[in-house]
């Protein structure tokens, strides 16, 4: 059994480690935006925090929809049906372009929410400009994620890593030029962050297209041999898998971002501290997220081979190693939370609040790691609707109501603390919501995998 576990972990890690570096580099763009804006001014940091709340909701929802391509293509890889993959990818690129345009429009419309948050006029203007400028990258991001899923499904994750690192370097350099107005360029502050990230998305799409066109490994499944018009019936079948994943991502990220928007009423210090904690925990989250992407690939490939028993083994092996890593990351986050806060901002008041929130972020590392890898294992089974409902219930039935009760202490709620706990109250709600999601997803995966095995054995007999 130990040899079997080591073999599977090696296969997961072979896929996961370049994905991890790529994911860290991609999230590093947001980290760079927050850190560099934070050292420019507290107002620009608040604008990036608010703008990134909206941007993250749309961005991650799009990413969730496009993850469906990973499960679909990986299944064909496992079945050895490589001839079907080019057609799937041509249709997925049409789907990605449409989703990217819609996301761009929704992102611009979403800035209306700032009118209801009682923000300082200068912060609201900067946050609106941030969102409108960064939205130019949405179509490119959607198409990039389609190709990202394609190459990951083929176990080719090097381009994901290299291209994301190049994008991060580009983002940091352009941030430096436009935030601070170097070499005679305009000093744009938070808007410079948005410009750098939006352009970086197009650069990454171009780099991925170039890589797929020139690397020999893609010749057998190269999707761009000829033009093909979109076929709604096939795009709709992809959306049946992808939209529930997108809604799942939306439920989770919107809950976190809603916290950021609700915390805005407590002032710039609370906004900035909350964004630091969210930004850093999102960075750490990339570790289980990368394992989850590898897990979707491995489970889909194994099911494509028709091996349902090994698919269950792969699923729980991935969840187990994710929990082990979460224990380590939670410990380190607890020990170094003050140093992390200081790395983001030089404001002592923001540092103190951020360090307290990072302690709560450390607590939910276990449940967060569990729920993301469990969800990804279920995607490998092409089951996405039940996880969607679980996440909606966990975040909107538990996390946000509890967070509002503790954070705002409104009189109309049946119970609440004497004084609002502000940001800390909201983060306690998030801890509870993630725990509920992890427990329910674990129960569902156990029942689903057992049912599949029982059905397979009954047919063999």
UniProtKB/TrEMBL annotation:
Q: Which Pfam families does the record cross-reference, listed alphabetically?
A: MatE
Localization of this protein = Cell inner membrane
Keywords recorded for this protein, A-Z:
Antiport, Cell membrane, Ion transport, Membrane, Transmembrane, Transmembrane helix, Transport
Q: How does it sit in the membrane?
A: Multi-pass membrane protein
Transmembrane domains' residue ranges: 12-32, 52-73, 93-110, 160-179, 199-218, 239-264, 276-297, 309-333, 386-406, 426-445
RNA-binding: is it a keyword of this entry?
A: no
Reply yes or no: does the keyword Transmembrane apply. yes
* Name this polypeptide is given: Multidrug-efflux transporter
The protein's organism comes out as Undibacterium amnicola
């Amino acid at each position: 059994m130990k040899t079997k576990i080591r073999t599977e972990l090696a296969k997961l890690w072979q896929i996961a480690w370049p994905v991890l570096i790529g994911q860290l580099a991609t999230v590093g763009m947001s980290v760079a935006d927050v850190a560099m804006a934070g050292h420019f001014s507290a107002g620009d940091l608040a604008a990036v925090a608010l703008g990134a709340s909206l941007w993250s909701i749309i961005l991650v929802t799009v990413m969730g929809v496009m993850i469906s391509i990973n499960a679909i293509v990986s299944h064909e890889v496992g079945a050895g049906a490589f001839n079907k993959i080019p057609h799937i990818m041509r249709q997925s690129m049409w789907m990605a372009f449409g989703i990217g345009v819609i996301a761009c429009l929704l992102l611009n419309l979403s800035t209306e929410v700032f009118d209801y948050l009682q923000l300082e006029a200068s912060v609201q203007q900067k946050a609106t400009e941030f969102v409108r400028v960064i939205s130019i990258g949405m179509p490119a991001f959607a198409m990039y994620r389609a190709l990202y899923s394609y190459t990951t499904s083929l176990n080719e994750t090097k381009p994901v890593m290299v291209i994301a690192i190049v994008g991060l370097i580009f983002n940091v350099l352009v941030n430096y030029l436009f935030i601070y107005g170097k070499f005679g360029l305009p000093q744009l502050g938070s808007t410079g962050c948005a410009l750098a990230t939006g352009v970086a998305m197009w650069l990454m799409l171009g780099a991925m297209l170039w890589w797929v066109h020139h690397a020999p490994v893609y010749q057998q499944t190269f999707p761009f041999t000829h033009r093909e018009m979109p076929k709604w019936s096939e795009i709709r079948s992809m959306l049946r898998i992808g939209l529930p994943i997108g809604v799942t991502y939306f439920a989770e990220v919107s809950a976190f971002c809603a916290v950021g928007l609700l915390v805005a009423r407590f002032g710039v210090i609370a906004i900035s501290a909350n964004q630091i904690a969210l930004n850093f925990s999102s960075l750490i989250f990339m570790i289980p997220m990368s394992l989850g992407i590898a897990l979707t690939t491995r489970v889909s490939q194994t099911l494509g081979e028709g091996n349902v028993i090994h698919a269950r083994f792969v699923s729980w092996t991935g969840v187990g190693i994710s929990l082990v890593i979460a224990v380590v990351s939670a410990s380190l986050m607890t020990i170094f939370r003050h140093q992390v806060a200081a790395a983001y901002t030089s404001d002592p008041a923001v540092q103190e609040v951020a360090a307290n929130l990072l302690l709560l972020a450390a607590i939910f590392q276990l449940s967060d790691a569990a729920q993301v890898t469990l969800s990804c294992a279920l995607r490998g089974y092409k089951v996405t609707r039940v996880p969607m409902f679980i996440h909606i219930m966990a975040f909107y039935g538990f996390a946000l109501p509890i967070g509002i009760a503790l954070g705002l202490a409104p009189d109309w709620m049946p119970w609440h603390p004497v004084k609002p706990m502000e940001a800390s109250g909201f983060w306690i709600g998030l801890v509870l919501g993630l725990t509920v999601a992890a427990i329910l997803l674990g129960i569902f995966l156990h029942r689903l995998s057992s049912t599949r095995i029982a059905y397979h054995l009954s047919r063999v007999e």
